[in-house]
């Protein structure tokens, strides 16, 4: 787990301040499990979910084609400061779809304890935030997300659907 993510989790567990960026999204941290969808909620994610977000290598990204049909692909990601970050080829179908309709869903691979998020993606073409570049390199053995025709998708979570909570 990259150092920044581990430090953020430790601060939360010790009752300290949440990672930067979360307060702006209205997130308050506590050690409680949330039972229900988290639409507009200030209830934090359970510790085991936060650990999965730090450790798991792939998330399934669902975008919408022009005809409204889903396009689902596994992607590498980092989750920092209450936001999903995904590095992509700027010419990919998923990026073309996001440019036309930013609504996306993300799902971690484990079907036993599902973690699904919904949000609206923003496409970054250059000047990727340094902490995000560092987090990708730490999680994926030095991988540099910057490069020719690379973009970065930023997905702040609008709604969480967790195990036993989907409606």
Automatic annotation (TrEMBL):
<feature type="domain" description="Pyridoxamine 5'-phosphate oxidase N-terminal">
    <location>
        <begin position="48"/>
        <end position="159"/>
    </location>
</feature>
<dbReference type="GO" id="GO:0005829">
    <property type="term" value="C:cytosol"/>
</dbReference>
<dbReference type="GO" id="GO:0070967">
    <property type="term" value="F:coenzyme F420 binding"/>
</dbReference>
<dbReference type="GO" id="GO:0016627">
    <property type="term" value="F:oxidoreductase activity, acting on the CH-CH group of donors"/>
</dbReference>
<keyword id="KW-0560">Oxidoreductase</keyword>
<dbReference type="InterPro" id="IPR012349">
    <property type="entry name" value="Split_barrel_FMN-bd"/>
</dbReference>
<dbReference type="Pfam" id="PF01243">
    <property type="entry name" value="PNPOx_N"/>
</dbReference>
<protein>
    <submittedName>
        <fullName>PPOX class probable F420-dependent enzyme</fullName>
    </submittedName>
</protein>
<dbReference type="InterPro" id="IPR011576">
    <property type="entry name" value="Pyridox_Oxase_N"/>
</dbReference>
<dbReference type="InterPro" id="IPR052019">
    <property type="entry name" value="F420H2_bilvrd_red/Heme_oxyg"/>
</dbReference>
